[in-house]
Amino acid sequence: MRLINMLTISSFKFAIHVIFLVSFFLISCSSAALFTITNNCPFTIWPATLSGAGTTPLPTTGFQLNSGQSAQIPTTPSWSGRVWARTGCTFDASGVGKCETADCGGKMECGGMGATPPASLFEITIGGYNNLDYYDVSFVDGYNLPIIAVPRSTSGGCNATGCASDINIGCPKELQVVGGDGGGVGGVIACNSACGAFGMDQYCCSGQYANPNTCRPSYYSSIFKRACPRAYSYAFDDGTSTFTCNAYEYAIIFCPNNGMDQIAGPGIGTGISTGTGIETGTEVGTLSAPHTKNDKIRGSIRTNTSSNAISQVSISICLIIVSFASLYIV
């Protein structure tokens, strides 16, 4: 009888361990993604990341990305935060300097500092409610670069979002940020939001306007919305600007019109044709998983095709492990 009880207790403990392992693999497999950041601008940019409160920081919070380069950054399960790009930056050997747009405290690595407006932002929560990713492109803090985000999912049916239009060209004079070369040849290098330019409650959705009933689209936010129907144009622009997916990778592309033939999905700005994939004008290698070593970004070259295949194989392996482990529960 004692032997039977010991076997029963051991079986129960074993089942608990297996359930824990299955839960761990389910979370790990379904709630992390890869960011592939591509610079299609004809000048150097400095991408940056900011993790949300209570979220593990990504392997890098800022790095240099030359024209035509792509960099891959792995996320962690349930990560949330922002990705953006800075322009017109100069840094010394220790990584201290400044940027003309979207600066983060004058450091190469932002280290928990957010973007100084105006800045085009990609925002995401991975593995949120119902294990879905919630993502958007926001110009609530203004605009400095064209940006689109394209999710890649094994199930399909996910929407690209963002804006391929150059809002700087049509930015109202009162919202313009004028600077040096900043990657261009002078002139307008960014476009403020009305909140950033005027600081009034009605534009910032603050004070008595801090709810969707009183804070309505303004003349200025409508300019952003007409140019970029899928992007956030003001704080309560949720209905047409937040999207969900369960993706293994997000392609985040700056200046998507340069050298690109097609982007998945309509409605992300002018000059873009509809389609189901991404095609670049030239084959570009990928700087794999940038990380810091001696305060410098280093990485190895790997093709986009290989990285996509590795991501999909990893998901398949996770699912096989979960299926195998679950057999021991019954």
Automatic annotation (TrEMBL):
Q: Does the keyword Transmembrane helix apply?
A: yes
UniProt cross-references to InterPro entries, sorted A to Z:
Osmotin/thaumatin-like_sf (IPR037176), Thaumatin (IPR001938), Thaumatin_CS (IPR017949)
The UniProt keywords, alphabetically, are:
Disulfide bond, Membrane, Transmembrane, Transmembrane helix
Tell me where the transmembrane regions lie: 309-329
- Which superkingdom heads the taxonomic lineage of this protein's source? Eukaryota
Q: List the disulfide bonds.
A: 41-255, 89-99, 104-110, 158-245, 163-228, 171-191, 195-204, 205-215
Protein known as? Thaumatin-like protein 1
- Its source organism is Lactuca virosa
Specify the taxonomic lineage.
Eukaryota, Viridiplantae, Streptophyta, Embryophyta, Tracheophyta
